[in-house]
Design brief:
alpha/beta, six-stranded parallel β-sheet, 6 strands
């Protein structure tokens, strides 16, 4: 997803990435680890078991080459991959004393990321859950209390409010943008609201990151942004282009923007499975 032409993913590639993304998200892992190498999962994915796909993912992660839109690190990226002495440990993000903010942090993905980050990176400085739903924040605070997780913070705010984003992004190193209107039929019935959140919100996040000292931004997208046939997919495709194009106008700012697409996640908010079960 590191370049503009990747936004025009072919249907087969997109299907395969959706499967790979679903495997990772379902396990609460940060999808940004394989921003571009996701497309290496090619050919006959339907005939492969989950174990085989997972093994391929491990191989991709262990041979991840350096890329402008990647937040992974290599020991010596001047050498060909075959000659690099890269280890799995050297690739993992160093989050010691770093601050991360997740927009839409009370959603299914936000909670999964929160669980993963807090358990895998206990030396994190701050993990900020940014969302507009105070009730969900209250409920999440019961699951992740500050007494047990002193790194966590809960900020009320809306991605439509750029000034609030600028305040929230102060002294933040990494931003994971997961806030969006995601229900297809609701977006169709309320198109102006969907555009304000998914496109206007993306613009605000980009602008706020430029005005603060954010170092890396990973925006979460969807398989529906590939050859979209509904407003939700169209707004997410536009959002993707805004984030990737931001790399062209950053000048000397060292910030890097990435986009990660994933497919439907079973059991997440808005999952179609409960709908099918209730149709019995």
């Amino acid at each position: 997803m590191g370049r503009l032409h990747h936004l025009g993913l072919k249907a087969e590639e997109n299907k395969m990435y959706g499967i790979a993304g679903q495997m990772e998200i379902a396990r609460g892992k940060v999808a940004g680890y394989y921003v571009e190498k996701k497309m290496s999962l090619h050919k006959n994915v339907e005939d492969q078991t989950e174990e085989e796909l997972e093994e391929k993912m491990k191989n991709i992660l262990s041979n991840h080459d350096n890329h402008p839109q990647s937040i992974c690190r290599h020991s010596d990226n001047s050498l060909p991959i075959s000659q690099q002495t890269t280890t799995r440990t050297s690739m993992i993000m160093d989050l010691k004393e770093k601050s991360i903010l997740i927009t839409g942090g009370t959603g299914s993905l936000g909670k999964a990321l929160t669980t993963h980050i807090l358990h895998k990176y206990p030396n994190l400085k701050r993990l900020i859950v940014f969302s507009r739903d105070e009730q969900k924040q209250f409920q999440m605070a019961q699951e992740f209390p500050a007494s047990k997780y002193p790194q966590i913070r809960y900020f009320i705010g809306d991605v439509r409010d750029k000034e609030r984003l600028e305040r929230a992004f102060q002294k933040v190193d990494y931003v994971i943008h997961a806030a969006a209107m995601k229900h297809v039929h609701i977006a169709e019935y309320n198109p102006d609201e969907c555009i304000k959140t998914n496109i206007g919100g993306a613009e605000n996040v980009v602008d706020a990151c430029f005005k603060t000292k954010v170092k890396r931004v990973v925006a979460l997208s969807t398989d529906k942004a590939c050859a979209p046939i509904n407003l939700y997919g169209a707004t997410k495709l536009t959002s993707d282009k805004l984030f990737i194009a931001a790399n062209n106008i950053k000048g000397e700012n060292p910030i890097r923007f990435s986009v990660v697409r994933y497919g439907n996640v079973m059991g997440s908010n808005g999952s179609v499975i409960p709908f099918f079960i209730n149709k019995k």
